[in-house]
Amino acid sequence: MYYEDEERLLNPDLFHVFRRELYAINSDLEVTLGLKYVPTHTEDGIPIRKLYVSNLPPKTTRSELFGVFAQYGFIKSCWLRMGDKGPNRPPTPTYAFVTFSNPADAHKALQAPIHEKTLRGRNLKISPADSWHQPTEDADGRGRWKPRGQRRADGNTSSSENGVQEHDINNIDRVSENGDEAMATTSTTEVPVNVELQDQQKCTTDNESCYTILDVLNRDCLTHILAYIPIRDLIRSERVSKTWQNMVREYLQGIRIFKTSWWQHVTVMLTTAVLRRILQRVGESLTRLHIDHHWSALNDRTAHIVGKFCPNLEELKIVGMHTRNWNPLIYGCKELKSLSFVSCNKLTDSSLVQLVKSESCIESLTVANNTHVTGLFLTGSNPQKLNSLAFYNCYSLQGTVLSAAIDTLPQLTTLKLDVCPYTMWKIIPLILNKLPKLEELSLSEYISVEMCFSPQCNDAFCDALATLTELKILNLSRNIYITNAVLKRVAQSCPKLESLNISSCNSRRSLPHPGVGDEGVAAVCRGCRGLAALDVSYLGALSDAGMRAAAALPRLARLTARGNPALSAASLACCLAACPLLEELDVCGCDAVSEELVCAAVRALAQRPRALILRVAGTNALPNELARDEYPSHKLLTVDHLDDRSNPHLRPDFVDHMFDDSSDDSFADIYDQDDFDEFFGQDDDLFLDEDLDDFEGLYQFGLHAPDIILL
């Protein structure tokens, strides 16, 4: 009878009801009085080191759990339970165990407010783990951490001997700290017995290994470190361990830009097969791909590989590839917006006709250093999204064909026709008349003198500029057909102009018509008050009077005036004092610029502080090392006197002495008769005596008999 009464008092169902009511009272006290009871020991008196964590968001990792709980103390281990995966369902985390080395740290984690224990917008449910999950401790109160093999053996033994008892205890629903039912243990009606026992055995027998450096460092630190390692080495290192493999794959999935020129430091040649292995790992996340490695061995299958493994690609640049068919890019890269072909010799109009069809998503197309493209691929294509078109050094480009194709490009806002045939200059006015919405125009490096300059052609170009009222960027560098009249028309018709480059426009005055001078620069500065970047380098007719006109530009941020021998420091000092937004002044190669420019820059910064870069290499602004310490300085001023960015061959006063007869370095000087006699000796010594009957005399002159060929 005594034992029957004891069993009746220890009825598990009665104990379950009693504990639920006790926790309900505890929760009421917490709400009303602000009291919160957090146990420090389990029911068996074991200190709580291990915590049970539930309500995990999908795709939770150990590193994220370390980031949440590391603020409370040293974490000994972190075990994450992953659910079963199906054929079309990846495994998702269900719950986790976090073990602290010190019970006080676990107690702080339990007492912490809920808002500190959130992950991806979810409030983590935290409660002490059951007593059989808690690590045991010795007499000194230190945790007893068992080795891996011993823990696995003990776990198997305990689970086999006490399986029924553990099952009975698990039937008791544990309540979390906020009163909700915990998800770790459920009744037998909800979870089968065998599944629950398997979970308990796996939790007990799993290795609670200490975390490594990969768990401590956050994702930003790992990304910064791995950025210094070549991709080839990262791919080969995946076989080290599964943890390292997951970390490397996570890093590779975050790469957005890849250039094959980075491969030139690797001894292995970049072939199509190697590129395929790389894009298999990084291609899905790439948005920019540059195939610009000149010493590669890529074949025609490269386009198929890029189209297959790079579905999210937005920018593609190909340099030096001999591939004719690029149609697979359209079928694979649905998000491709920018496409550039540089030095692709086999690229023709038939290679591009499918890339710019009406349903194409390409917005920018660039073709450079090509001898086959004529522009015929644009006729009849009618691409609706193409707004940028650039041709550089394309000698087969036909102006009449391009003019007819422009009618099908209503959205074109950027046009670049650089280093094109000289016959293109006659067709450019017809093209510009069809593009009233043009915002960027580049017509640089027209230096051919095969076409005689005609005022009628220049007037037609000026009339075409009158229609470009929306123009913001204009590049006319190294164009011998640009005069002051052209710049005056730009000043009248382009009030929204923000950037202008007129460097080396007929600077040597080698043609009968004049180039750009003070009159044209002053007109642009008066008419285009919104200019932020101005380049007036290598202009022989530019003086201080024209440069002072730049002081009327309130938004000027970058001024470049390289290789102008007539400029002095006085006009540049006016620009520094009058332009409050000026951040960079480049006067490399201007011989007349003195040290007054540095003093003027210091005074300008004292009145209107801003970061200023002053490039004075090749000038007299800082003549020697000793004088530099005597000049005033400013903490916002950076003076660059070493990097000379000027090109001496583009200077207006450049004279080529290579073929000049009066030069000391000419080739005529080496044909002096006296120099030949000193080097080779007298002519009489070069002939042999007629009395030599054998070969002994030949050895006196350094000759040997086998080396003589008798004809």
From TrEMBL:
<keyword id="KW-0694">RNA-binding</keyword>
<dbReference type="InterPro" id="IPR035979">
    <property type="entry name" value="RBD_domain_sf"/>
</dbReference>
<dbReference type="Pfam" id="PF00646">
    <property type="entry name" value="F-box"/>
</dbReference>
<dbReference type="GO" id="GO:0019005">
    <property type="term" value="C:SCF ubiquitin ligase complex"/>
</dbReference>
<dbReference type="InterPro" id="IPR036047">
    <property type="entry name" value="F-box-like_dom_sf"/>
</dbReference>
<dbReference type="InterPro" id="IPR000504">
    <property type="entry name" value="RRM_dom"/>
</dbReference>
<dbReference type="InterPro" id="IPR012677">
    <property type="entry name" value="Nucleotide-bd_a/b_plait_sf"/>
</dbReference>
<dbReference type="GO" id="GO:0003723">
    <property type="term" value="F:RNA binding"/>
</dbReference>
<protein>
    <submittedName>
        <fullName>Uncharacterized protein LOC113503406 isoform X4</fullName>
    </submittedName>
</protein>
<dbReference type="InterPro" id="IPR006553">
    <property type="entry name" value="Leu-rich_rpt_Cys-con_subtyp"/>
</dbReference>
<dbReference type="InterPro" id="IPR032675">
    <property type="entry name" value="LRR_dom_sf"/>
</dbReference>
<feature type="domain" description="RRM">
    <location>
        <begin position="49"/>
        <end position="131"/>
    </location>
</feature>
<keyword id="KW-0833">Ubl conjugation pathway</keyword>
<dbReference type="InterPro" id="IPR001810">
    <property type="entry name" value="F-box_dom"/>
</dbReference>
<feature type="region of interest" description="Disordered">
    <location>
        <begin position="115"/>
        <end position="168"/>
    </location>
</feature>
<dbReference type="GO" id="GO:0031146">
    <property type="term" value="P:SCF-dependent proteasomal ubiquitin-dependent protein catabolic process"/>
</dbReference>
<dbReference type="Pfam" id="PF00076">
    <property type="entry name" value="RRM_1"/>
</dbReference>
